[in-house]
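Bench notes, afternoon.
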Amino acid sequence: MTVRLAAFLRAVNVGGTGKLPMTELKAMCESLGFVNVKTFIASGNVVFETTLSAAKAKAALQAAVVKYLGRPIGLFVRDRVSLEAMIGDNPFAKAEGNRLMVILLDASPSKSMIDAARFKVDEEIALGSNCLYVHYPLGMGKSKLKILGAEQGTARNMNTMRAMLALLNG
């Protein structure tokens, strides 16, 4: 059975931490046997179809990324159902999409992550299923917010999450 999956790679093409052109990411996915591969913007977002489970697709892609970059990076895979739920469960539905970040995590976050957050001014943080939602009313660039444990994840704004869901549904 074929499934469509979305993968979100952490820290590629930002701040010089790891260069992975999207043409290379697409070719990498195709070399793994993934089909109908589409990337979205140059920050490590890719959608593909595979006969592998999400866990096996993640492991295969992670191994290919390690071979390419020479080190592991955070990689988060979601199917349509989990991405729809993540978007639908958004507790800050009235926030502008570019001011609302979803931090993808491998496990469900704990309330202690919110309680231990430092330098919080007007930001709002909420727990999700394998993610955190962070609303930056003044924009992320002006914020000094630090959330312990969030560095293990990868963040995308809600506009990107919606675009990735559209690609999954495409």
